Amino acid sequence: MTTKAGAKTADYDFVLPADRIAQTPAERRDQSRLMVVDRTTGTIEHRRFADLVELIAPGDALVLNTTRVLRARLLGTRDSGAPAEVFLLKPLGDDRFEALVHPGGKLRPGRTVHVTPELEVDILEITKRRTRVVRLRSPLPLDEAIERFGHVPLPPYIARGDEAPDAERYQTVYARESGSVAAPTAGLHFTPELLAALAARGVRRADLLLHVGAGTFKPVETDDPADHVMHEEWYQLGDDAAATLNETRATGGRVWAVGTTSVRTLESTVRDDGSFAAMSGDTRIFIRPPYRFRAVDKLITNFHLPRSTLIMLVAAFAGYDLTMRAYRTALEAGYRFYSYGDAMVIL
Predict the structure, then answer these.
(1) How high is the mean pLDDT in each 10-residue block of the chain (347 residues)?
(2) Which of the four CATH numbers 3.40.50.12160, 3.10.20.600, 3.40.640.10, 3.40.1780.10 does domain 9-69+168-346 have?
(3) Is 73-149 CATH 1.25.40.10?
(4) What is the reported pTM?
């Protein structure tokens, strides 16, 4: 029996030369390249991200994830003076966090990582998934201590340490609520001027929240995507955003999701009749072909890793064949890939 293209994890493999992985952002956010993919005609067009103002119609809604990236990498030393790292994953309340640690074998419960004299991290316990529960100790408010002494958690495919410009450029210009360990990268291309131009055009805006977890980078390692255990991420769709989206739908407007995080939130909060409900919680939604979208009409996204849940989500939206053709076109046309890379809009 033959399987349909896009049904297996291997179908999402492609070879990406290392020099196509963007190591730094574009000089200006909205001057990144924008591939325009039309699902109806199958055509592919090459533009600049600032041209988005010509593509989104008045009365449509632009959905933005306002999460802010936590300076999650805490670099320090063990009692022996040897280097150690604590990577904060999510707050657990009070002064405790779930975290990844390195070296794992040395950082058992009872050990301490000394980041600075003003910030120390105690290892409390090992979780079932081999992460750690840690306690942060500081005379400063913890948010301030993390912001002052933590490092920007650039993705592993960016082969350098974080630098001063990353503190700004690895955040969206509309980031507000801290809690992500990776940026919702489709949003990195927006500028205040572009957002103002869209608002002046009559484009509605709906803000939501999904805190991006480290699982976003985890490749699908099972042959059948259905066997993959999806990571959970916390989301919130507020009353105002739900009302904006429902008004958009009621007046015939289209919903434009900025990034896969917005898609996951919207598809987790849409009702059977296509309306939206204000709610919050954890989502493990895994969107892959075949999938019937009820919440999203248009998608703005970056170019994603092979064999990732993210490229599968894009294939569910655009269709497998068109998605892989767009990726081949991007490779041929010199697009920059991943977090600091170029963007794609799927109409």
Answers:
(1) 81 95 96 98 98 98 97 96 95 92 94 97 94 97 95 94 96 96 97 98 98 84 93 95 98 98 97 95 95 97 96 97 98 97 98
(2) 3.40.1780.10
(3) no
(4) 0.94
